[in-house]
Amino acid sequence: MPTLFAIYISFVENDLDGVIECQPHLITTITSIVKLLSLYLNRQNLKKIFISVKEEWDLLEVNGTVHILDEITRKGSKIAEFYRGVLLPGLLLFLLLPLVHPVLDIIMPLNETRPRQQVFKLYYFVDSDENFYPIYFHASFCSIAAILSVITVDSLYMIIAHHASGLFAVCGHKIKKSTENNGITNGLVAIGGGYEDARECVEAHNKAIQFFEFLDKISRKNFLLQIGFNMIGVSVTAFQVVVHLDELNEAIRHAIFFGAQNIHLFFLSLPGQIITDYSSEVANNMYSSEWYHTPVKIQKVLHTLQMRSSKPCELTAGGLYKMNMENFGKILSVNCYYVVTAIQELHSLLFRHGVL
Questions:
Q1: Does pTM top 0.85 for this prediction?
Q2: What is the radius of gyration, based on Cα positions, of the chain?
Q3: Cβ atoms within 10 A of the Cβ of 295, count?
Q4: What is the pLDDT of residues 131-153, one digit of tens each?
């Protein structure tokens, strides 16, 4: 609410800069709400996913291939841990920057009090300087709550996506096993075990596809909102970085926010890329195996799998934006291009006026 009040006051005062300054953290708050609402609205679907995960772990443990799924899921946990390790220190640095001037007033006092800047542009209907610390701690608490919500939901999504990837990896392992046990002995075809392995491979692939499709179905609208808000927020924050280049403290704060938004987009796109890679690897495992040495009956079963695995699984945002690293790279390059171009233009302008 204080942010909305600040936007309203800025509108009334025709302060366009003030309105723009409120946008990044407002968008971040909305994004965290979208994530939490998505969890709440999909709680039954998530329950089904967790049940499916448990069933798959129990089944693969019996089949002796659970180590493949365990290895890939651990990778997802490590990535999620790295994500937390990047955003949380960035959040801490972002929240500590407004305290630089108050601390300097204590250890290096001047004849006057240094100007104080809150974490965000907020309006509490009280004097912000006289009530600096209550406002600061409230804003910091809200910031921590919002970022923790983002990190928690994204970490959960990261692990679920790696579980889906693990199912495709298990399928690839079964392909190699089915072609090794091809049932050819002394020139005679004894289909038996090889055929059963091929059937298990197709069944494993169908389960992986079903898990992926269910995950994609419940996340499409959520991703569309998140990607849309993220693009708007990154653009506005990049503008703020350029505008505040003459104020080092503010420029650093907005630069940290700009970096965090791009990191968030990166970790939104990464799981989709991982699923795409592992689903594509199924077809590669097929081509690199000795399927042509298997009996015709097994080849027919594997051909069905080959046709489906030739189309990689891709998570999308509303079916409009593919969640992969290629699209992330395009967005990042555009954002960085605008920032660098704006800085160069500002530098040229200052040089022409003799400031530099």
A1: no
A2: 27
A3: 17
A4: 778 888 888 888 888 888 888 88
